[in-house]
Design brief:
Chain B is α/β, with parallel strands linked by helices. Chain B contains seven helices and ten strands. The N and C termini of chain B lie close together (10 Å). By secondary structure, chain C is α+β, with helices and mostly antiparallel strands. In chain C, helix 6 runs parallel beside helix 8 and helix 11 packs antiparallel against helix 12. Chains A and C meet through helix 2, strand 4, helix 5, strand 12 and helix 8 of A and helix 2, strand 2, helix 4, helix 9 and helix 11 of C.
């Protein structure tokens, strides 16, 4: 008890001297805890941002291309039912979007044109960067509307609201252009309609050519889901789309590394501040150490009191800083990503422990006080 | 009479300087010895060695039968806690501890703390109403009285006082000196360093130092010389 | 006299000075390192994003509609417009030529491969090809730059060689015929004889349409299709700056006649590596083309870069704050613990201004010296950090040198002022008594 009484009195009596160290520890802890909170939040947010790159898993029939070259050939197909049922088994929180596609090459105004039948509400989520002039088709049952790519619109002289007639083999269908798509890719050359409408035009009810899935998560998570789907659908090909997963992984890695490096630098600087304060403090405490030694205090006991003092400083400062840091990360999440990042409880003990370590590291001068020779000190200058 | 201090041929060198050059003397229980001499004569070095704050280069220095020259660091630490009570010229109270806490500090390093006992020791030196004061709130004399209470709390075999009134004004000096006289009457063994002859005359015996050596040991008129 | 006092002040208590110096050096080193990286990080991250591949697509302006599924064009060779391969060197002559990291032309043609017994798509392209640039140099580029996730088992075809890489889908269907080391025979159609033999050097798996196609050198595809020196579409990977309001105006001004940029706006837009201005410059040197941003890549990149950039600047500021605190604290504690000296000087009759002046000058000089050394240490730290995070060391930004020195002096001054002001009120007697 006397021990803790001594520690407390030390802290109270030296408030002014310790001010700099306290400020350093609290601000260091605030920054570290903010960064730690952000780290996972940043990963999650960025992973979500990356979803706008499109699908990262594709399911296709084992044999052949998912499309054909002339409208005389039948595309390779999979039954819609099979595939979609399995996809339901994926946890909905992880699936950002999933859509079946059926591609056929039909003719419009006697020109071959790629027609993609899909669930447009999902397609919109899969390819969130499409710019649309006009309006989306939100219902999967809306057979009367279609979307056309900007090149199709240009070539066929179509505007929003115009009718479009599509011919496939001996069959034909009509739809009204609801919107014009600007995607900056293959979609600019395609026509989009509901899956049902295209299946009906091609007389391929219940069949699809490919399914695209966008799963939230880092590369290993995506690979895991792909593997799961592959086991559940052994008769089909399930593959992760490498373009996205790899770049994403590398980028996230770099950003995290950068943040960790900065955090480390800040820790070093905090230790430095503490060191500076402690060095000044140590100078003033030499007399006290000499006195305590003369009273029969051993080096380990005396240094122990000082280290406990520093440890309490680190813990208290760490706690306060962690709280401030939690608020900071919340604010930064809002500012940078537009959504709040909620603090994680693990960050609190981690920050406190880190700050105790930093404080003890900076307390080296106090540890060296153990070597003070009482005779020299007590003599008086 | 029990011998509290036995010093044989004590030498202490700091590099080329001989602070103590073969000193021998004896102190019996209950004696109040004044160690006198000009500055640089080695008296503080002697006190430091007897108090276990410093180790001699050669020779013997036994306090209550323990030769400090032979003690290791741990042994010296225990020795300081158990056998010695120090009173310094500059008081050396811990500035952020109250009076009673300063006394309890000595208890802490000895064994266990007993706040009641510490309070009583402060009452004994007339500071019963200053127990919770910080040193900054006490006068010089009061601080030194706290130091005396601290020196006594563990019932030391030997009290070492280094110019105990050097930093005090006349009034406070009187208070502290009469306190020392009381301790002497109670039978404590006191070794006091002083440069003032008037203070030296209060002791039973005076030992004079010069250039690290004993010059003479003189009795005062207040106590008969001990064989 | 002032200088003498200063000099003597410096010479005293060297150990304390070492600690102070260490704090200053490390504090300013961290400042230098974080600022160096912060200045470059936008650029480096943008480079990282190039691993997502091309962000611009160039196609013939007056073209028939590509029959494109999964990125592969299934049109017959005689249909549709072509672009000239010979023009491609001009891409490295535009204002932002150094931001053009790579480009790859594609010529897709339906052909007949004996080993499949049917129609198979050939994709003619470059993997690594040297393009002659009008200024006499050569620029090496190809799918290695614009499609970095294209990895093959085995190796890629040699430029212009009779070699090819087959898709994993084909290999799976007919592993005996489509294996590395085997030769396949391709012809434009089934009637054109035995076909041209191509050595399979690798197998590719992308998850996209390439898995069921044969990739071969552009020149070979051109010969088979009968269209030498031509290609259908070009993918370009450009280092760009995220789009902001000006970029959007510039982009819309291309198509919308109602939107005009003022001359200064135009200059700023042209001289910023926005994807719209780079696209505009490409269209200028390749007439008759439609240059369009690949939205998926460009916009994702822009958005993430902006966000991450903001985040990193906040972190940088935090690090700078910590450094400033360290330096200020060092100055403050130095002044604090030398109260005795201040007391002595005042007791000797020195005025507050003189005492303050000496200490301030000392701290500022020390800070500048520490800042100078810290700069070089910081440059080293930045190099190391750049290397470990991005793979290439960060280059020193010399402009930071005066900035760092000025910062050090300023922080030391501010840090010393507070305790010096307090010291101005010290009574010498109090200090000298040792309280």
């Amino acid at each position: 008890m006397m021990f803790w009484r001594l520690v407390l009195q030390l802290l109270r009596g030296n408030r002014g001297r310790l001010a700099v160290a306290i400020v350093a520890i609290v601000s260091g802890a605030a920054v570290i805890s903010a960064l730690l909170n952000l780290d996972l939040g940043v990963q999650n947010k960025l992973t979500q941002e990356f979803r706008t790159l499109g699908a990262n898993i594709v399911i296709s029939p084992a044999s052949g291309a998912p499309a054909h070259i002339s409208d005389a050939e039948v595309p390779s197909l999979m039954p819609e039912h099979d595939v979609l049922e399995v996809m339901q088994q994926l946890p909905p929180t992880q699936v950002a979007a999933a859509a079946p596609y059926l591609y056929i090459v039909a003719r419009a105004q006697n020109i071959p044109v790629v027609v993609a039948g899909t669930w447009l509400d999902q397609a919109q989520k899969l390819d969130a960067t499409w710019k649309l002039e006009g309006s989306w088709i939100t219902s999967r049952a809306d057979d009367s509307h279609c979307l056309v790519g900007r090149n199709v619109a240009r070539r066929l002289h179509l505007a929003v609201g115009n009718p479009l007639e599509l011919h496939y083999l001996e069959r034909s269908a009509q739809c009204s252009v609801a919107g014009i798509v600007d995607a900056g890719g293959a979609e600019d050359n395609q026509v989009f309609a509901t899956l049902r409408a295209v299946q009906s035009l091609a007389n391929l009810p219940g069949q699809i050519g490919v399914a695209q899935v966008s799963v939230t998560g880092t590369a290993p998570v995506v690979a895991d889901y792909a593997a799961r789907l592959a086991t559940a659908l052994p008769q089909y090909q399930v593959r992760p789309i490498r373009q996205v997963a790899e770049a994403e992984g590398a980028l996230l890695g770099r950003i995290r590394l950068l943040i960790v490096s900065m955090a480390l630098l800040i820790l070093i600087l905090t230790a430095l501040c503490v060191l500076g304060t402690m060095a000044a403090l140590a100078m003033e405490r030499r007399k006290d150490v000499g006195l305590m030694k003369s009273l029969g205090g051993s080096i380990s006991r005396i240094v122990g009191i000082f280290l406990a003092e520093v440890g309490v400083l680190g813990a208290a400062g760490g706690l306060l800083g962690a709280i401030i840091g939690a608020a900071l990360s919340y604010w930064m999440g809002l500012r940078v990503f537009g959504t709040a990042i909620s603090p994680r409880w693990e960050v609190f003990p981690t920050t406190i422990v880190l700050m105790i370590v930093v404080a003890l590291a900076g307390a080296l001068p106090l540890r060296m006080l153990g070597n003070v020779k009482p005779a020299e000190i007590l003599r008086g200058e | 009479m029990a011998t509290v201090v036995q010093v044989e041929n004590l030498r202490k060198e700091f590099g080329n300087v001989r602070a103590l050059d073969g000193v021998s003397f004896r102190v019996d229980a209950g004696e109040w010895i004044a160690i006198m001499g000009p500055s640089g004569s080695g008296k503080t070095t002697l006190i430091n060695i007897l108090g276990g704050l410093d180790t001699p280069t050669s020779g013997q220095a036994a306090v209550d039968g323990t030769d400090v020259a032979r003690l290791d660091e741990a042994g010296l630490t225990r020795f300081r806690a158990e056998k010695i009570g120090f009173i310094f010229q500059q008081f050396h109270l811990v500035p952020y501890l109250t009076a009673v806490e300063n006394v309890m500090l000595a208890q802490y390093f000895h064994s266990t703390t007993d706040e009641k006992e510490a309070q009583q020791s402060l009452e004994r030196v007339g500071l019963g109403d200053r127990i919770e004061h910080l040193p900054a709130q006490l006068s010089g004399g009061e601080q030194q009285r706290v130091a005396v209470a601290r020196a006594l709390i563990n019932h030391p075999k030997l009290i070492l006082a280094d110019e105990p009134t050097g930093n005090l004004d006349e009034a406070n000096e009187d208070i502290v000196l009469s306190l020392l006289r009381e301790l002497h009457t109670e039978g404590h063994t006191i070794l006091m360093v002083t440069h003032a002859p008037s203070i030296g005359r209060l002791a039973d015996r005076r030992i004079e130092f010069a250039h690290g050596r004993l010059v003479q040991a003189a009795a005062t008129s207040l106590k008969p010389e001990l064989a | 006299m002032f200088a003498r006092l200063l000099g003597e002040s410096f010479a005293r208590n060297p150990r304390r000075k070492v600690l102070t110096a260490a704090a200053l050096v490390i504090g300013m080193a961290v400042t230098t390192a974080t600022l160096t990286i912060a200045l470059e990080v936008g650029d480096r991250l943008a480079r990282e994003f190039r691993s997502l591949g091309a962000n611009l697509l160039v196609t013939p302006e007056s073209d028939t509609l590509p029959v494109e599924i999964g990125g592969v064009d299934y049109r017959p060779v005689d249909e549709g417009a072509y672009l000239n391969e010979a023009d491609l060197g001009k891409l490295k002559t535009i204002f932002w030529r150094h931001n053009i990291l790579g480009f790859t032309p594609f010529l897709d043609l339906p052909a007949y491969v004996s080993e499949t017994g049917g129609a198979t798509t050939l994709i003619g392209t470059w993997y690594q090809h040297e393009v002659p640039v009008p200024d006499g140099t050569k620029f090496e580029t190809g799918a290695s730059a614009t499609h970095p996730w294209w990895k093959v088992q085995g190796r890629w075809f040699g430029d212009g060689a009779d070699e090819c890489v087959v898709g994993a889908g084909l290999a799976q269907k007919n592993p005996a015929a489509f294996a590395i080391g085997k030769a396949i025979h391709v012809a434009q159609n089934s009637g054109s004889g035995s076909g041209r033999p191509l050595l399979i050097t690798g197998i590719i798996s992308t998850g996209d349409a390439e898995d069921n196609a044969v990739l071969l050198p552009l020149s070979v595809a051109q010969e088979i299709s009968g269209h030498p020196g031509k290609f259908r579409q070009l993918f370009v990977s450009a280092l760009t700056k995220p789009a902001d309001a000006l970029a959007e105006r510039g982009e819309r001004a291309q198509t919308d006649k109602n939107i005009q940029l003022t001359p200064t706006e135009y200059d700023r837009w042209f001289c910023s590596p926005y994807i719209s201005s780079i696209g505009f410059q490409i269209r200028t040197v390749l007439p008759g083309t439609d240059v369009h941003a690949i939205r998926r890549v460009a916009e994702t990149e822009g958005r993430i870069l902006t966000r991450v950039g903001t985040l990193l600047w906040i972190v940088t500021l935090a690090a700078l704050g910590a450094a400033a605190l360290a330096v200020a604290a060092t100055s403050a504690t130095t002044v604090l613990e030398r109260r005795a000296e201040i007391g002595v000087m005042k007791a000797l009759g020195a005025s507050n201004a003189l005492v303050g002046g000496i200490f301030l000058a000392e701290q500022v000089l020390l800070a500048i010296a520490g800042g100078a050394v810290g700069f070089f240490v910081g440059v080293g730290m930045a190099r190391f950090l750049g290397e470990s995070v991005f793979g290439t060391p960060a280059s020193p930004q010399l402009i930071l040198f005066p900035v760092v020195l000025a910062l050090a002096a300023l922080i030391a001054m501010i840090g010393s002022l507070v305790p010096l002001r307090r010291a101005a009120h010290f009574r010498p007697a109090v200090i000298l008594r040792g309280e």
